[in-house]
Design brief:
Layout: E1 2-8, H1 18-22, E2 28-31, E3 35-38, H2 48-52, E4 58-64
Antiparallel strand pairs: 1-4, 2-3
The chain binds iron/sulfur cluster (2 copies).
């Protein structure tokens, strides 16, 4: 099944935490203060995080997921 999931470009992320604050599913965490990580089991692909990221480090992509 194909679903929409957020994907963080770790090279562009500055670990500001803005995405984490707006995510309605708490799918984002900041890994060791370095970059954001997406929990794909929680992400619903709403795209809110992509709108607040100051460095455009997040894309929502279509991904094959196994249920
Ligand atoms: S796309 Fe939506 S659910 Fe997924 S990480 Fe971003 S804000 Fe959270
Ligand atoms: S909003 Fe962007 S720069 Fe800030 S932590 Fe999230 S992915 Fe990184």
């Amino acid at each position: 099944m194909v679903k929409r999931k957020a994907q963080v470009n770790q090279n562009d992320c500055v670990a500001c935490g803005a995405c984490q604050k707006v995510c309605p599913k708490s799918a984002l965490s900041i890994h060791r203060g370095c970059y954001a990580l997406v929990d794909e089991n929680l992400c619903v692909g709403c795209g809110l995080c992509t709108k607040v990221c100051p460095t455009n480090a997040i894309d929502v992509i279509k991904k094959e997921v196994t249920l």
